[in-house]
Write a structure and sequence with these properties.
The structure is a single chain. The chain is mainly alpha-helical. The chain has two domains: about 5-125, Rna Polymerase Sigma Factor, Chain: A; about 135-215, Winged helix-like DNA-binding domain superfamily/Winged helix DNA-binding domain (Arc Repressor Mutant, subunit A, Orthogonal Bundle), CATH 1.10.10. The chain is about 60% helix and about 0% strand. It has helices spanning about 5-15, 40-45, 50-70, 75-95, 105-125, 155-160, 165-175, 180-190, 190-215. Helix 1 packs antiparallel against helix 4 (about 75-95).
Length: about 220
């Protein structure tokens, strides 16, 4: 059965979109009992706009994409809206997708979700430049690096979410998307020096948060 754009919007609105943490019961990978042996086969079915293939695709990847979107957006309701918009964009542009082996589909859909998140931030955030008084930045060493291995992944995720919008966005693009400050500046409409400065200050805040976490045995997280 082929799927229309109306169908994909209706389907996304009615699927059980869970925004709980990754520690909760995971979303079933294949609730529709669809058997798709490899990614290439899935792409072929998506190109045909097969309804079950799109539902399978959604349920397979929604939780990961929620988490990726959550790196940039703190509002859970907005994350759901961005996820829906992202999947509609995927449905509309799947015919332009070029399969280049395992992992290329994930890279493509991740890029779309991040683009949607950045578009929302640009529209909703008045200024992506410095958003914190420099005097409020923790006085840590200039060369200190966050000891990310010292905290559980879920705690680190929460710490990153607590960063100011600009700092959080720059940090995520630099660390997780491997973007340089020149590209980040272009994507966010800020100066390259501002990108570098916000990344540096984001690291200082994380160093302080992680130090507090270690010294106070959870530091208020996970209690």
């Amino acid at each position: 059965m082929n799927l229309s754009l109306y169908d994909i919007s209706f389907t996304l609105n009615n699927l059980n979109l869970s925004l709980k943490s990754s520690d909760d019961q995971p979303m079933p990978a294949n609730p529709l009992k669809v058997i798709i042996s490899d990614e290439q086969e899935l792409v072929n079915d998506l190109l045909k706009k097969e309804k079950n293939a799109w539902k399978y695709f959604y349920n397979l990847h929604a939780r990961d994409l929620i988490r990726i979107c959550g790196r940039y957006i703190s509002d859970r309701e907005q994350i759901g809206d961005i996820l829906q918009e992202g999947f509609v964009k995927m449905f509309q542009s799947i015919d332009k997708f070029e399969y280049r082996g395992d992992g290329s589909l994930r890279a493509w859909m991740t890029r779309i979700i991040i683009n949607e998140a950045l578009a929302y931030l640009r529209a909703s955030t008045k200024n992506m430049e410095e958003s914190v008084d420099p005097q409020e930045i923790p006085d840590t060493g200039d060369h200190d690096e966050p000891e990310v291995e010292a905290v559980p992944e879920s705690v680190l995720y929460s710490m990153i979410q607590e960063l100011p919008d600009g700092y959080r966005t720059v940090f995520n693009l630099f660390v997780f998307e491997n973007m340089g400050h020149k590209e980040i500046a272009k994507r966010l409409g800020i100066a390259e020096s501002s990108s570098a400065s916000q990344f540096h200050r984001a690291k200082k805040i994380l160093v302080k948060k992680i130090t507090d976490y270690k010294n106070s045995n959870k530091g208020g997280y996970g209690r």
